[in-house]
Predict the structure.
Amino acid sequence: MQFTILLGFILLLLLGIPVGFAIGVLSTSTFIILGKSLLTIPQKMFTGIDIFTFLAIPLFILAGQIMNASEISKRILTFSNNLVGHITGSLSLVNVLASMLFAGLTGSAVSDAAGLGSIEIPMMLEGGYDLDFSAAITAASAVLGPIIPPSVVMILYAIIAGNVSVSDMFLAGYIPGILLGLSLMVVCYFISKKKKYPKKEHRAGLKEMIISFYQTLPALFMPIIILGGILSGVFTATESAAIAVLYAIIVAIFFLKTLKFRDLPSIFLETAKTTSSVLFIVAVSTVLAWILTVMQLPQRMAAYFLSYANTTFLFLLFSNILLLITGCLLDLTAGLIIMVPILSPVATLLGINPLHFGMVVVLNLCIGLITPPVGMVLFVTSNVAKISLGRIFKAIMPFVVVEILVLFLITYVPVLTTFVPKLFN
């Protein structure tokens, strides 16, 4: 039965049905086959999103939308260009560095790809870079959005797993995010050397650096305020999202003066659209997760892992393979809701640090955003760059490989995720 559900889901995706609707159709069909009451579906959907901490999701999305609309992304690019513009392949390095800084505002890979990509890709093309390479590095660096906090994905994981805090997940993301960013920069440098991509002849002086740094400060302060408030106990993770929105409005309207109050309704509407799609997937995935629980799939998976992968090394290896495949097929949110209840209890039984395992899951599913056939970031970047998916698939493979290598490093060196949370706790 479980195999039939998986096969049906893949078939619906291949037919081009959106992930949320595919899960909904599959869940409803399974309810009918099992003879369950269809009244249970809306009840489970409502219960799945009736969680106070979920308030942080629309608020963080709103804060990111406001900062993005305030054109702060252009200032981030200028600052990044002043820092690394003199190195070979400078614009590709700027692309990665800007994504690392922008991640602290949006916490979303799709926002990164759409917001920065619309500026970065034309800039790289004008600078003499190939379209394939420009689109590929834009998509690959966008993955940093959900890894460097604040992160909507980490909020979801903390709620679903129930054995880690949101603040600890945020702290655990810094070292993996920085490692991923630096690794992508190394790949960019060698590809740029091979293809003889240009660099900025004029190195930015100290005055230029200071001015661009000052102009970027509003963006840099947001993650500092969010994490500082959480760690000091001034406000909770959910309340920090509301503080982030207030801060974004003050910066955009009163400090940068690039946004007017009349611009806010359209930003609210866009935030509502994004939030509704995320929470709809959460709601229908909750129904599917309940079905799988009723069919005792988590228990069977746990028994299988404990029988054949009864060591920490093997379990983490099998989990990585399973999660990478899941990330290729499922939306990030759906992947979390379905896979975490299955794998997290087994990780606990094997004595794996819950925080470490949480980062392994998040990294896997984030890499899935740039892998075919359902890599959401690839679709967004393809539209922004006006390039076929086939060309991006080929160009992005070196970046996917290096991200998987970093994933395995994080997997088998737990201190890379637990060091910062332990330091602050």
Summary: The longest helix spans residues 264-294. The chain has a mean pLDDT of 82.
